[in-house]
Design a protein that fits this description.
The protein is 38% helix and 20% strand. It is an alpha/beta fold. It has one domain (5-217): TIM Barrel. β3 (57-60), α3 (74-86) and β4 (91-95) form a beta-alpha-beta unit.
């Protein structure tokens, strides 16, 4: 089985982003651009620089309260999210909590035909099966692309997050657990139906993340 990968790019330097993106897409199907790592004023230029490759990019602008780096005002972040959508990325990663409370943003993204990856993270634990299933049910209403990531401290935690694939049906679900104990979930998720798994080009961006070369060597 061919493992489809998405290289996470979390860089502050716009030139580095462009260079790493070029290298990443030579070996990987997709790349995630963590735009919350750069200055907001630099994002328009970055989008122009990567425009030719953005159809293979997952664009993310994660706020601090969701585990990201963006520390500006929320209305500024929403404006930038709308700008990103105009470039028609492969996926625009927007948090479940953001979409749930912002109907105007939901309507805007729907009108612009943007493919949204609605995401939810738990950086402390893996909730119960019932809680995870309820969350998935709500998220599926917002997009066909859903990402649910938790922190696992045991094999049973990892099993719970992977059990979501039994409930995903037509949804393009990306669900796995972070942490060294749950590293294998980043591979199993692909076998269970995930469209891709996140990797790094060098140093891991998230706990338990495989490098692109390691992932390719496994297939």
């Amino acid at each position: 089985m061919k493992y489809k990968t998405c290289v996470s790019i979390a860089e502050k330097n716009p030139k580095k982003i462009k260079d790493i993106l070029k290298k990443s897409l030579l070996k990987s199907e997709y790349a995630e651009i963590r735009l919350d790592f750069v200055k907001p004023s630099e994002i328009p230029n970055i989008l122009q620089d990567i425009e030719k490759k953005i159809s293979r990019c997952v664009c993310t602008l994660r706020p601090k309260n969701e585990g990201g780096k963006f520390s500006g005002k929320e209305n500024e972040r929403i404006s930038i999210i709308k700008l990103i959508s105009e470039y028609n990325p492969f996926l625009l990663d927007v948090e479940f909590n953001t979409l749930k409370k912002n109907q105007k943003l939901r309507q805007y993204l729907k009108k612009s035909n943007t493919d949204i990856l609605v995401s939810w993270h738990d950086f402390k634990k893996t909730p119960s099966v019932n809680s995870l299933n309820s969350r998935l049910k709500e998220m599926k209403k917002l997009s066909n692309f859903v990402k649910i990531v938790t922190v696992a401290k045991s094999i049973s935690d990892t099993s719970r997050i992977l059990s979501l694939y039994n409930k995903s049906s037509k949804t393009k679900l990306i669900a796995f657990a972070m942490g060294e104990q749950a590293k294998f979930s980043r591979i199993l998720c692909i076998h269970l139906g995930s469209p891709y798994t996140y990797v790094s080009l060098g140093k891991a961006v998230a706990p338990g993340q495989f490098s692109l070369d390691d992932m390719k060597s496994l297939q």
